[in-house]
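pls design
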C-alpha cells in the first residue's frame, strides 16, 4: 500500500519517530490505527451507554411501556 499524507503529516511522523515513539513510518501508522480503533470503540460504548440511560429515563418516567419478554414470546412464537 502506498499512501501520500502530505508534508505536514510527514513532518509530524518524522518528529514522532525522532522522539522515539516509533521506529519507522510503518510502525507509527500501525500504532495510530490501533489508537484510532480504540477511540472508535470507546465512542461506541459511550453512545450505547447514553442511549440506555435515555431509555431508562423514559421507562422510569412512565413514557415508555415495558412489555415482558414472556408476553412477546407468547405472541410471536405460536
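designed seq:
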Amino acid at each position: 500500500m502506498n499512501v501520500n499524507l502530505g508534508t505536514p503529516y510527514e513532518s509530524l511522523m518524522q518528529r514522532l519517530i525522532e522522539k522515539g515513539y516509533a521506529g519507522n513510518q510503518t510502525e507509527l501508522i500501525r500504532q495510530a490505527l490501533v489508537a484510532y480503533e480504540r477511540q472508535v470503540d470507546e465512542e461506541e460504548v459511550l453512545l450505547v451507554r447514553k442511549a440506555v440511560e435515555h431509555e431508562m429515563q423514559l421507562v422510569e418516567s412512565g413514557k415508555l411501556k415495558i412489555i415482558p419478554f414472556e408476553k412477546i414470546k407468547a405472541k410471536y412464537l405460536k
